[in-house]
Amino acid sequence: MADPRPKILVVDDIPSNVHVLSRILKDDYDIYFATDGEKALELVQRRLPDLVLLDIMMPGMDGYEVCSRIKADPATNDIPVIFISAKSEVEDETRGLEVGAIDFITKPISPPIVKARVRNHLLLKRQADLLRSLSFLDGLTGIANRRRFDETMEREWRRCARIQQPVSLVILDVDHFKAYNDQYGHQSGDECLRAVAEVLAERMKRPCDLVARYGGEEFVCLLPETENRGAAQVAEWLRAAVADCGIPHANSPVAPHVTISLGVATMVPATGRTPDQLAQAADQLLYQAKRAGRNRVQGATVPAL
């Protein structure tokens, strides 16, 4: 499958300038446009463009303010911004770079210059995105790592707070994993964790869902916009799927094969609540599942404050 075409947002209050830039770039990129700062910020959030071409002098919110807001949001601060403006004083370029722009193109617009700058900065962004994605992967299992989970949780927590939807979190670990390592060796233990991670990842169906290795033999599944009943059902599917793998575990008092225990907590983000509180609640429920005999799901919705 071919890679999707990069998305470019063109922001200029003069429609003819937008038309010129669109004509230059439309053969290679998907073009979106805005003629004011507020609309630009809305499109940045909704479309997540790969690059923004931004005019400075606009009525209301100017380009400097738009760029500052893009860079202040963790969800968008890695989007490259190139200023395109008739302002060519050193002070103007310096201010643009200070608020987070990566380049500055002066008007009148030269099509070869625009094409070259856009192409080069998109290439740099792709390389940076690749390195970033590698830094978010767990080296043993290939799924998301704790760092990726923490960043995704913060982003989804803020998003669900805005729309007042619940966030569910599943914390699970492999039952009697130390005994497994003692019986089969650490290399087999690593293979067991990889197999469990693969099963979990295969059952995360929605783009917003995330499974990550939390540490050791512990994993987490983040389920935004999911009530506790639905999250508990997902957890039960995960429990059954791992059991169905039939990975031998002769040292387990629970079953002759590898099993997992799961805690499922749900919370609607609100003032005074934090992702850490959700994680603590899920961890306590995992502890309850273990005390109740393991190889089971324990779930609860955290009451409103």
Automatic annotation (TrEMBL):
Q: Which SMART domains match?
A: GGDEF, REC
| Pfam families named among the record's database cross-references | GGDEF, Response_reg
Can you state which reaction this protein catalyses?
A: 2 GTP = 3',3'-c-di-GMP + 2 diphosphate
Q: Which PROSITE patterns match?
A: GGDEF (PS50887), RESPONSE_REGULATORY (PS50110)
Task: Supply the EC number(s).
Answer: 2.7.7.65
A GO BP term, please? phosphorelay signal transduction system
Q: Which residues form the Response regulatory domain?
A: 7-122
Task: Spell out the InterPro entries in the cross-references.
Answer: CheY-like_superfamily, Diguanylate_Cyclase, GGDEF_dom, Nucleotide_cyclase, Rev_trsase/Diguanyl_cyclase, Sig_transdc_resp-reg_receiver
According to the entry, every stretch annotated as the GGDEF domain falls at 165-302
Q: Which domain of life is it from?
A: Bacteria
Q: Does the keyword Phosphoprotein apply?
A: yes
Q: Name one GO cellular component term.
A: plasma membrane
Q: Which residues in this protein are found as 4-aspartylphosphate? A: 55
One MF term in the entry's GO annotations: diguanylate cyclase activity
Please provide the record's keywords in A-Z order. Answer: Phosphoprotein
What is the protein's name according to its record? Answer: diguanylate cyclase
